[in-house]
Amino acid sequence: MRDPVCGEEVKTTTYKYTYKSVTYYFCSPMCMAEFKKNPEKYIKNIK
Ligand SMILES: [Zn+2]
């Protein structure tokens, strides 16, 4: 899976966050915090 914030390939499931029934994985706590601030912005980038 890919980090929706920075676009990096994520190899661990340490940092995950479920938003609107979809679980997203992140490379770092910073990316996760960034996503939580504005999930819609990053979800738009994925599609
Ligand atoms: Zn990241």
Automatic annotation (TrEMBL):
SUPFAM superfamilies: Ferritin-like (SSF47240). Transmembrane segments: none annotated. GO terms for molecular function: oxidoreductase activity. Residues 3-39 form the TRASH domain. It comes from the Archaea. This is TRASH domain-containing protein.
